[in-house]
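dumping the sequnces here before i forget
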Amino acid sequence: MNLQSFYTFRKRFLFIVGLSLLFAILLISLSPESQRENVGNITNPISIIIAASLSVLILYKQKTDGEIGKAFLMLTLGLILWAVAEILFTYSEIITLELERNIMLSDLLWLLGYGPLIYYSLKMYMLFHNYSSKKSIAVIIIMMIAYLAYILPLILDTYSSSSNEDLPLLYISISYLLLDLIFIFPASLVILNFGIFDNKNQGVLTFFPWMFVAMIIIGIADSIFAYTSVSGYYQLEWITTPIYTSGYLLMAFGLYWHYKFFIYK
Amino acid sequence: MSSKSSANEKLIKLIENSGYIYRNQKTDIVIRDIILNVLNRIGKSYSKALIYQICSLYGLSQNELLSNYELFENSLKRVVGKTGYPIVLRIKKELLKYLILNKYEISTKDILDPSFNVPQIIDKLSESYNYDLISENLNNNKRNHMILLSNNDDKHIKKIITSLVHLSKNISDIKRVVIVLHDHFDKKKYFRSVPDIDIYYLHDIISSPSSSPLSSSSSSTDKSFKLDNDANNNNNNNIDLINFQQFDNTNFLVFCFIDIQILQQFNNYKILQILEEKFEKLYNLNKITQICCIYDVSNFYTKEYEIKLLRDFINHHDVIIVDEPLLMYQKFDIRDDILK
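..and the predicted 3d for all of it:
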């Protein structure tokens, strides 16, 4: 592929990405109110299954040699755990019609999935993005502390004032937030340093940090999900589904980009 | 600075177009191995894919990409942007490790200096390899007729002259001669501790024909060439600048210091041409002959006439050494190269 045909491909690819995200968001948001959450609970596992399948394909082609091989092995493991968790969650929500949010096997799988995914994000950060200035590290740490200082009291207040007395669920919800912060830390540094709107530092093939942006989006969705779970506002849970779907879809597109340009066929 | 580097580029082009080849492939091989090693450690598939993508996006061959570091770094930055910096840092680290392990000259200050970049390390490595190649050539060949195109970077010139003088100390009955066609020649700089060396200041006579041809210079060993014919006959090929027959069948070491600017004067050009012809004759006649012509090209402006004149003189030599960066070229000989 020469440079000209590459740019044509990139333009089409970005168009498809935009279109897919818009379609997924509209599909959930424009569904009848009673069906919104169910639609979202179907799009979530579908989008993460696509991402996990692409990750398996990459692992098969790329093998596990080298640092990137090990990082992708962990990513695949994490995505598979999350995909199974999403399927189990959807099953409990749609088939067994569990109305109240309880701790489930899916929570365990989600929490387990964080380990390999954090390994992946830290490894990729060290491999390709380890040039952050002290200033940007300080900015991100301050932002994270500020975020925690805001969200933790909010969740705790909501919990104490709500009818929900499921303490383990509170701990699980807070664990999601804390674990999210671990992989959001390198992701935020990458995005801060990357300068998405600054062409000077972008490479032709690395113009967008797909995986890291997806991680931030999933982190945002987790915060909302933790709040709605603890507060007992289950009717608002559907709001998280288009965000999760967008995050998983972005991961899938990022993985396709990696498969297309960084795997030797 | 840029005009100097463009002059150097033109000089190198001139040498390559005159049928000389650069024999040092070792630096390229080392760099290529280090780049591949660093990329393979990230991942073999990633490494192959990245090289393939760079080559196909910019229409390069893998050989072109990996044998020219600056091209590699620029292409890498264009293709992967800032994410290429850690790769460059790893290459730098590996190169420094290589230099230290192979005991090449590198100071702690350089190692710790973050601005000491990969091209500078490569220059250092290349300089060391080229100097090894030059030393090998001096040690292995009893007969050399070399031209040093110097930008007044005395470091290399001094080293090469010292090597040649040192080698000549082991040879009995050797005649050491210095011929100077340069206004700013400093005897002490190069030959302070060299005994039995005759220095001929040719330029004095050429620039002031009225002065006595036998007027001696400050040192007892300094001499002026005796012009057998008078100045009016300078156009004539029969000019005999020096009695070269005295050097026939003897071991002979000669250094000739020439300022490129003097070639503009027809007389100088003619005399230098005759000198080079004499050297060539001696080179073919004597068993041990080391002829080292040091051309000061610091005032070389790559004008058309300069290039033409220089090409005429370069062609007399079998080895060309350029400083800044230190490079060695050898005359391309099909027979030799096929046998190798």
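Residues 118-140 of chain B form the longest helix (23 residues).
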